[in-house]
Design a protein that fits this description.
With about 400 residues, this protein is mainly α. It contains 23 helices and no strands. α12 (about 195-205) packs parallel to α14 and α13 (about 210-220) packs antiparallel against α14 (about 225-240). It starts with 7 loop residues before the first helix and ends in a 20-residue tail after the last helix. Mean pLDDT is about 85; it is low at about 405-410.
């Protein structure tokens, strides 16, 4: 009962007070820890279970696999997979689906796809897990190809989870027409009123640049709006250059019943940064720390540094980064600000800091060469680029996309 209520303290008290624990007792406790994402504790409990000489079943192994996925521990995940093979559990389809998902979350798509292809019995969950794995790892086109294979060959009718993965893949490649088609699919399948689907639609339309449709979906949600909905629409306006509207939406949210979370603040700080609303960004950052007691992440700090740098307050931004001792992205934000304002000395200092933290990355070299070029020091810019080639540093290629939809969902 307490595990269903997610009451860890009560469940632990009862579990530890049991004189005779069977496999169900151990499995229930492990499942609760996994659901609460206490993955390390779940693994430790499994080792205690092995020490008690209670035989474990496929459900226990599923919990182990889920714990490895949460931790992103591929080595331990492979060991658990091998254990499942030895114990003869690989005929259990739910376990196979869990192992596929684990490999995807650990970034080993080859193993996930091999397992998927080798599976004689595939459920809707199997297809959804593979499609989601492609999306999580940035292979949006592969995800969409698999999605349309399910649809066109009539294996299953896509569920809401699969549809959300397809929408996410579509917006990743800015396929607006495809998002419209998938929205129609949601209506047809009866998923259009699902909160999770609507939230995904808001993000998808926003990332495709159609903020009007995103806002239409947001308004249509009515009482179904949650913090994710507000985050999506605030972020949508921010990435589309409507910082003032994003700010107004943030204040509207604060007046309502939804409490802002870390993602909310990241979205509005990013919107303020790109819109040049430096004072609003600083006030909101202070409110986040002082009023809501939310601990800032590197991304939050990065937004503030970017705001200061864009506004030309480079000395303040530099002091902010130096005092906090945060990661390379903050220094990159400062370096980008130096490009806007042609501050060569500070750009050189920031580039050195990025290089110390990430010596194999090329971004700082490219940005610094742009700073040199912006002030007419073309020989220095060329020397940096030549140095990149000698050190075998590869510049991340730019990507452009024509708004033509190569897919048709039939």
């Amino acid at each position: 009962m307490y595990s269903c209520l997610m009451d860890l303290d009560a469940a632990t008290t009862i579990f530890e007070g049991m004189k005779h624990k069977d496999v169900i007792s151990w499995t229930t406790m492990m499942g609760l820890l996994v659901n609460l994402e206490y993955a390390t504790d779940a693994l430790e409990l499994f080792y205690k279970m092995k020490g008690s000489e209670v035989s474990y079943d496929a459900i226990v192994v599923m919990n182990l696999v889920s714990a490895c996925a949460i931790l992103g521990d591929l080595r331990k995940g492979k060991q658990t997979h091998a254990q499942a093979v030895v114990c003869g559990f690989v005929s259990e389809l739910p376990l196979v689906n869990s192992i596929m998902a684990m490999y995807s979350k650990c970034g080993d798509l080859d193993s996930s796809r091999t397992l998927f292809d080798q599976s004689n019995k595939k459920s809707l969950v199997s297809w959804a897990a593979m499609i989601s794995g492609y999306v999580q790892n940035g292979f949006s086109r592969e995800a969409l190809n698999l999605f349309f294979k399910v649809r066109l060959e009539g294996y299953y009718h896509p569920d809401s989870v699969m549809l959300m993965s397809a929408l996410t893949a579509s917006c990743d490649i800015a396929a607006f027409e495809l998002c419209l088609q998938l929205h129609c699919c949601a209506f047809e399948a009866g998923f259009s009123s699902y909160r999770s689907v609507q939230n995904t639609l808001i993000s998808a339309y926003s990332k495709c640049g159609n903020i009007d449709l995103a806002y239409f979906v947001f308004k249509e949600m009515g009482y179904l709006k949650d913090v994710v909905s507000w985050n999506a629409i605030i972020n949508g306006h921010g990435i589309n250059g409507h910082g003032e509207i994003a700010l107004a939406l943030f204040h509207e949210m604060r007046k309502g019943t939804e409490d802002a979370d870390s993602a909310t603040y990241l979205s509005i700080l990013n919107a303020c940064s790109h819109a040049g609303l430096i004072y609003d960004a600083l006030i909101i950052f202070n409110k986040m720390v002082e009023d809501d007691k939310i601990r800032p992440s590197q991304e939050h700090y990065g937004c503030i540094i970017d705001s200061l740098a864009r506004a030309g307050c480079l000395s303040h931004a530099s002091v902010f980064v130096s005092q906090l001792g945060i990661g390379p992205n903050a220094w990159r934000a400062l370096l980008s600000g130096c490009v806007l304002h042609g501050n060569v000395e500070l750009a050189e200092f920031a580039a050195r800091k990025v290089f110390e933290l990430e010596p194999r990355e090329s971004d700082q070299v490219v940005i610094l060469s742009n700073v040199y070029a912006s002030v007419g020091r073309f020989q220095d810019a060329e020397a940096l680029r030549s140095g990149m080639q000698k050190q075998a540093l590869i510049k991340n290629p730019g990507v452009s996309l024509l708004c033509r939809n190569p897919y048709d969902d039939g």
